[in-house]
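Milestone M4 deliverable, item 7.
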Amino acid sequence: MKHAYLLFLLITAFGFAQIPAGYYNYATGTGYALKTQLKKIIDDQDDMLTTEYQSVDNGYGGLYTTYETSDKDLYFENNGTVLDMYSENPSGADSYEYTYEIESPDDRDSGTGGNAEGQFYNREHIIPQSVFNGNTPMHSDAHFVVPSDKYVNGQRGSLPFGVVPALTSGDPNLYSNGSKRGNNINSGYSAGYTGMVFEPIDEFKGDIARMHFYFATRYEDLISGFGSYAMFNGTSNQVFNTTFFNILYQWHTQDPVSQREIDRNNAIFARQSNRNPFIDHPEYVSSIWNNLLSVKENSLLNDITIYPNPLKGDYLNINSSEKLSVEIYTVLGQSVFKTQTHNKLGKINLSTLKKGLYIVKLSTKKGSITKKLVKQ
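Output delivered:
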C-alpha cells in the first residue's frame, strides 16, 4: 500500500503550487453537472472560461518523450528507470527494469518479441484502443496511456479491470509483480460480473481508477458513441455500469492519491496542458457519482462535521452519530495526532499542533472520510 504521505485528499493541500491559479474556478456544481464543468476545463476547446488551458495532442510518438518526465521511478528503487505498473514491485526488487535511453532506446518495443516478460516496454491504453477505434486525441493522451511491459500489456489486451481470485506461483495468469488475470469474483464490491478481467496490484489500483474517471470526464461528449465495453453503460453522464463503478470507487478510496500521481499529473500538464482533476481533487468522484454511492456512505459523509474550521484555539469539536477514531496528518503524511471519541459530540485538544494545514481522517465501522483542517 502507499507510504504514509500518500493520504487521500493530500493533493488538495499539497498541489496548490502546481495547479494554476483559477484552474478549477468553473467547477462549482455537483453531480454530472460538475463532470461537464470539469470537461470544459480539461478539454481542447475554447469554452470561454475566465482561466483556460486547452489540451494539446503531442502525437503517439510524443508519449515516449512525456514518459521521460512523467513515469520515472523516483519512488521505489529511485533509480530513474521506467515506472511500469505491471512490473514494479513496491516491497522488493523488480524482476526486471527498463531504462530511458536517449541515444539508443533499446528497451522500447521494436516491433518484434514481447513473448515473455522483461523484453520490451510499450504503451498501454488503460481504456483499450478498441473502445474508441484508436482515434485521436484519445490515442495519445498520456493521462491514461502509460508505459508497460509489452508482454503483460498483450496479456491484458482489452480486458476490463476487476478482482481475480488468488493464484498460485507458476500460474501463467500471474505476472512478476503480482498483477493477474482471471474471472472476476462475483461477490462483495465486485459483484455483478463473471467474465475475464485484469487486476493490478494494490499499489496502483487507485491510479488506474482515477485514470478511468479522467477518461469519463475528458471525453464526455464522445463516450456514448464509442464501441461497447464491459465497464461502460453507453451513457455520457454515468459512463460506468454499477459493478465496475463499485470496483473503481473501492480502489479509489483504498489506494489514495500518491506523490507519484501528483508528480505525474504535473509532468503531463507541462507537456499536454491539461490535468487529471481526480488527482487534484479526489473528492470530485463522490460529488459527481453521488447517486451510485451507498446510503450508508452518503449518511457517513453528511453526518460527520468538524468545527471550528479554521481552528483559532486549541479545541476541535467533532460531531458524529457514533463512535469514531480520529487521526490527523501533516500535508506530508506524518501522523501527528490519534484518538477515539465515544460520544456524539467529541472535543479534542489540539494544542500540540503548530499553525498550518492538516488532513483529518475520521473512521467509523461504516468506513472513513477525510477533511481538511486549518489551524491558525
